[in-house]
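thought: fold this chain, then report.
action: predict
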Amino acid sequence: MMAQEPRAAGEEQVWLSLLVEQRDEHRGGRLPGPHEHGALARSEGGRERLGEAFRHASSDESSICGRRELMGAAHVIVLRYHEIALKGRNRPFFVRRLVDNVLRATAGLPVGSVGRASARLLLPLHDVAAWPEARARLARIFGLANFALAHEMALEGDAEAALERLGEAIVGRLGAAPMPSFRVHTKRADKRFPLPSPEVSRRLGHAIRVATGSRVDLDDAAVTVAVDILPGRAFFSLEKVGGAGGLPVGTSGRVLALLSGGLDSPVASWRMMRRGCAVDFVHFHSAPFHDRTSQEKARQLAAELVRWELSAALHLVAFGEVQRQIVAAIGRPLRVVLYRRMMLRIAEAIARAAGAEALVTGESLGQVASQTLPNLAVIE
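observation:
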């Protein structure tokens, strides 16, 4: 262990975040494309930012019951989480962080407040034209098992009649397009609804088959109709999008990743994000003895990774003088090990100052000579 040190000479700090001041068709502009979140803009003080700081309203943490906005929405994005649901009394902490991340990711899109119901988040979408962009952003939110653009329908009065109306709504959404095969998958979160999930699926499947003439295929259906039965409401969707899984970023603390410009360190950083870590980055370059190629590569990698965690800091450390002194004093066989040892010592000082609790290196045992077990013991 070493005492906290001041910022290394020549260190440059780059702040990264996704673009928030986004305009869409509904607010006097256009929806941003999938690659328009990555342009670095020069800001005051010599620092660089990828977009602006996020601004969003706090979410309503109540359930969907009585929510006027949600119950009147034509389209609702149903967000399902899995691993979070296995948590105990600290589950609300994980859910709140997930809600916060969803709101940050969808900033600038025509969405409403997030509702909650039975291991699901419900996000009203006010204009279906924004669905492709919303889908792309939500697919990068860690903590989501899957999500779908769903249609909401009230379940009022007699259960038999309500189910018949639900079947008619589903048939209407399927339209006249040919459908080779289908299946219905029902989850009944509201156990007070008198019909069990298999019976709901059977009756809805019968209605769809009669109306469309399509065959039922429970194993390899061309279309899966997903139905969620919630208190007083039902949501049905015709497409389920796989989520990023894992835990919401920010639930497992902050770490600092040494970003080399290769493949292993970005993969290690991504995997730590998936386990709930907020990841900052540090890159060591050989200025002033080499050009800025490695720095630009580090910026590109960090800009891509930040799309998965929404904001991060990139520290660029001029390491050329340290390398020069090691070359002048140490024989060739030990130089790489000493380079890496010094990088970790500097990274540790930066991590302490930034409040990071661990370093991420992407080391792969035995991959190169410096990554043997004895060398790793010396480096760390």
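thought: worth noting. The chain has two domains: 12-50+251-379, 68-242.
final: tokens above.
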